[in-house]
C-alpha cells in the first residue's frame, strides 16, 4: 500500500486534448450544439479522465463504506447502531435498495466494513475495519489522526484493487447510522455555518430529535475545536470512518485515473475533504444528485459542480449516483450512435457569439 503522500503526489491532471476532441465529436453530430447539457459535459469529462475521445466505462463498481459512529449514544438517530452491520449483511445478500438498483444499472456492489461495531459475516463483505466504531464526538475526537490516515489509505487501496480487477468506473456510497450527524458537523466547520443551517432529519428524526442533533453537533465542535484548514483534523475529530474511507476512494480513483461518481450529502462532504488534500483529484469526480439534506446544495456549490438530479432522494448507499448511471448511459448511447450532420442531411450548426 502506498503512503498518502505518494498518492497525492501521483495524481495528474486529466487530458485536456482528449476533452477537446470529444467536444469536436459532439459538435459533429446532428443535433443542436450542446443541446444535451450535462450529458455532453459528463462524456467529455470521461474522455479527459481516460485520455481518449472514445471512453467506454463498461465495468462499474459501487463501493459502500460502512462504519458506526459513537455519537449515536446521544440519541441523534431513529435506530440504533445494529442497523449498520445488518444493512451491510443485506448488501452481501444483494437485498438492499442499492443492490436492487445495481441490477438495472449493470454494476456490481462491494460492501466494505471500514469501522462497524462488529465484523461482517457474509463472504462478500470486505472486513477492513480500522477500528470498531468511532468515539462519541460530543465527548472527544472520533478517532486519532493516524487512524484517519489509515482509513483514507484503506479506501484508496479498495479502489486500486478494483482497478486491477478491470473495473473502469467507481460509484461512492456509505452506510453508517449517525453519519448525517458527523457530516453536518463537518459542513458546519468547513463552511463556517450554524449547525441549524446544515443539519437535517437524516433517516427520519422527529422535530425534538432534530433539535437534539443540532445541540450535539454544537457541543462536538466546541469540545474538539477542529481546524477547518486541515482536512484530516476535521475528519479525525468530528467525522467518521466512512467519510475517511470515501475520501480515500476519491483520491485512489484520481491516482488510478478512474472516474468516480459522488452520491449525496455524505459523499459530497467526503469529496470536498478529498479536494482539500488534492485539488487535482476533483477533476476525476462527477457530481450526480443533490440530496434532500439541507446542506447538500451548499456542498455541491462549494465543490464548484452542478448536480443533474434533483429528485428529493436522501437514502444513501450510493443510490443517487447509481441512478445517474442511466444518464451517463444515454450520453454514451447518443455519442456513439447519433448520425452526423452529413448523415442527417442537415446543415451544420455553428457556435454563435
Can you characterise this structure?
This protein is α/β, with parallel strands linked by helices and 353 residues long. 48% of the residues lie in helices and 9% in strands. The chain contains 15 helices and 6 strands. A 6-stranded parallel sheet has the order 3-2-1-4-5-6, with helices on both faces. Strand 5, helix 12 (265-277) and strand 6 (285-287) form a beta-alpha-beta unit. Helix 2 runs antiparallel to helix 3 (38-50). The radius of gyration is 20 Å and the shape is globular. It starts with a helix and ends in a 9-residue tail after the last helix. The model has no long low-confidence stretch (mean pLDDT 96).
What attributes does this structure have?
single chain; 353 residues; alpha/beta; 48% helix; globular
Summarize the topology.
Layout: H1 4-9, H2 16-27, H3 38-50, E1 60-67, H4 82-92, H5 97-105, E2 107-115, E3 126-127, H6 145-164, E4 169-175, H7 179-190, H8 195-198, H9 207-224, H10 231-238, H11 241-255, E5 260-262, H12 265-277, E6 285-287, H13 296-302, H14 319-337, H15 341-344
Parallel strand pairs: 1-2, 1-4, 2-3, 4-5, 5-6
What's this model, at a glance?
This protein has 353 residues and is α/β, with parallel strands linked by helices. Helices cover 48% and strands 9% of the residues.
Order of strands in the sheet with most strands: 3-2-1-4-5-6
Main beta-sheet annotation: 6 strands, parallel
Summed up, the helix count is 15
Report the average pLDDT across residues: 96
Backbone shape: globular
Along the chain, the helix and strand elements come as: HHHEHHEEHEHHHHHEHEHHH
* Alpha carbon gap, first and last residue: 51 Å
Number of strands: 6
**Strand percentage, roughly?**
5-15%
Return the structural class. alpha/beta
| Rg of Cα set | 20 Å
Question: Which regions contain 5 or more consecutive residues with pLDDT less than 50?
Answer: none
Helix fraction, binned, reads 40-55%
Amino acid at each position: 500500500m502506498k503512503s498518502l503522500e505518494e498518492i497525492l503526489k501521483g495524481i495528474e491532471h486529466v487530458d485536456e486534448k482528449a476533452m477537446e476532441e470529444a467536444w469536436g465529436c459532439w459538435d459533429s453530430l446532428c443535433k443542436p450544439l450542446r443541446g444535451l447539457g450535462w450529458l455532453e459535459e459528463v462524456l467529455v469529462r470521461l474522455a479527459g479522465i481516460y485520455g481518449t475521445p472514445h471512453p467506454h466505462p463498461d465495468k462499474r463498481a459501487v463501493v459502500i463504506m460502512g462504519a458506526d459512529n459513537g455519537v449515536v449514544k446521544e440519541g441523534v438517530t431513529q435506530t440504533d447502531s445494529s442497523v449498520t452491520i445488518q444493512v451491510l449483511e443485506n448488501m452481501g445478500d444483494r437485498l438492499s435498495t442499492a443492490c436492487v438498483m445495481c441490477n438495472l444499472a449493470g454494476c456490481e456492489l462491494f460492501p466494505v466494513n471500514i469501522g462497524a461495531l462488529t465484523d461482517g459475516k457474509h463472504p462478500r463483505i470486505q472486513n477492513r475495519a480500522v477500528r470498531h466504531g468511532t468515539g462519541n464526538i460530543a465527548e472527544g475526537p472520533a478517532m486519532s489522526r493516524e487512524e484517519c490516515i489509515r482509513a483514507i489509505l484503506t479506501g484508496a487501496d479498495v479502489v486500486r484493487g478494483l482497478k486491477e480487477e478491470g473495473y473502469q468506473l467507481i460509484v461512492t456510497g456509505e452506510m453508517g447510522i449517525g453519519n448525517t450527524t458527523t457530516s453536518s458537523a463537518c459542513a458546519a466547520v468547513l463552511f463556517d455555518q450554524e449547525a441549524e443551517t446544515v443539519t437535517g432529519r437524516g433517516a427520519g428524526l422527529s422535530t425534538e430529535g432534530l433539535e437534539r442533533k443540532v445541540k450535539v453537533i454544537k457541543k462536538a465542535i466546541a469540545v474538539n475545536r477542529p481546524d477547518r484548514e486541515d482536512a484530516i483534523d476535521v475528519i479525525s475529530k468530528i467525522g467518521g470512518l466512512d467519510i475517511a474511507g470515501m475520501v480515500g476512494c476519491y483520491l485512489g480513483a484520481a491516482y488510478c485515473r478512474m472516474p468516480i461518481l459522488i452520491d449525496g450529502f455524505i459523499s459530497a462532504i467526503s469529496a470536498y475533504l478529498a479536494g482539500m488534500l488534492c485539488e487535482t483529484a476533483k477533476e476525476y469526480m462527477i457530481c450526480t444528485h443533490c440530496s434532500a439534506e439541507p446542506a447538500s446544495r451548499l456542498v455541491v456549490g462549494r465543490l464548484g459542480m452542478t448536480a443533474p438530479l434533483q429528485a428529493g432522494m436522501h437514502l444513501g448507499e450510493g443510490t443517487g449516483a447509481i441512478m445517474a448511471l442511466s444518464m451517463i448511459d444515454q450520453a454514451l448511447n447518443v455519442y456513439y450512435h447519433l448520425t452526423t450532420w452529413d448523415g442527417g442531411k442537415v446543415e451544420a450548426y455553428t457556435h454563435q457569439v
